[in-house]
Amino acid sequence: MPEPHIAPATLFEFARLQSGLDTDKQAHLDACPECQKKLGWMRTMDSMRRNEPDYEPPGGVLKRAISIGSTPPTTAHSSAGRIIADLVYDSFSDPHPAGVRQEDLASRHLTFKADDLELKLQLTVSGEGRLLVVGQVVSENAIPAGVEVILDAEEEGARRTVTNEWGEFLFDDLSRAGYSLRVNLRERILFVPNLPLF
Amino acid sequence: MNREATIEDLGRFSGKSDQDVINACLEGNGEAWEALVRRYRKLVYSIPFKFGIGREDAMELFQSVWLDCFQELRALRKTDSLRAWLIRIAVRKCYRFKDTLRRRMELPLPDSAEDSALTENPSPELIQRLHQEQLIRTVMAKLGRRCQQVLQALFFEDPLPSYAALAFRLGLSENSIGFTRDRCLDRMGKLLEQLGYEN
Lengths: 198, 199
Hints:
The complex is a heterodimer of chains A (198) and B (199). Chain A has helices spanning 8-17, 23-31, 33-47, 59-67; strands at residues 81-84, 86-90, 107-114, 117-125, 131-139, 148-153, 157-162, 168-174, 179-184, 188-192. With 198 residues, chain A is an alpha+beta fold. A 5-stranded mixed sheet of chain A has the order 1-10-9-6-7, with no helix packed on it. In chain A, a hairpin with a 3-residue loop joins β9 (179-184) and β10 (188-192). Chain B is mainly α and 199 residues long. Chain B contains 10 helices and no strands. Chain B has helices at 3-7, 18-26, 30-50, 55-71, 73-76, 82-104, 124-142, 145-156, 163-170, 174-194. The relative contact order of chain B is 0.11. The interface between A and B is large, with 49 and 53 residues.
């Protein structure tokens, strides 16, 4: 194998600027695993230029992921206690407070309670007959931010999302199938077995 | 200039191994968890895009991967490579997301079973590529500030700045830029080698 190794600057220019190599250097490169390795990582790094800025998650998204670790993982998810939420308000069956007008029948408001937790849901049907679920989890102790919410449908499988800093979450473009909903609070799971639809 | 250098990791956890950081997380150290998320944020966030998934859904998948990671921390304490675990979980979630989307929209199956964007077990090339990119990020974060600035400019700026402009920006003489560049390229290569970078 011809010596010496190809200079790092030459390899860099070859990787970044696609400058050609002279015959001797090309012959060396073809036979030299060490130079091939250097050129390999330089090419990978060069190819990252176009997309790398897009791979920085937005600040709010990063903050939510960081907030997941704000409480210690004391209990494994699988053994977390499940508490069934009670339906305490349903805009379709409960009377509206005095002065409040009848709401649009395409939108249904539900409130569930369990222990110190309150789960508010607004279910809306779009013009195409698809379902939108907007919710908020509130606790007397703290706002459950960065908490996983899972919507299970028998046929469609699970859809998952995470609450924002206000404990809010959203599922869109749902079919009007039967759903159950879980809010995974790590130390316990708030569970709505049968979500009333329309 | 180099955001990677300033926010890649947090204070006292910046030089710690994944295992050390995971152990601190299990003791309830929120700073450790933040360091872990920051360390692998680009790796996890990049994967949905490689599957052609849009930005909004990529954000949800990002959260979902970190939730799984947090819930599995005890098991991950014994994992050889958190990086490999994160890649596996994120790839699986992306596959399932795309599969669900395809079924909802009643799209036809991909022509080729080799289509890695719709394969739960993606091509070894994609996996290797993800590892390579993360190793490069990790090594960039380990470099000194001067080398970070030089390599960031040389590889990630478009158009490539002239050496005169780079020297001016860094407060160096133009004559010394070539030497600094070579030293930084050499350092980068050696650190990648130490961490097991493979072509």
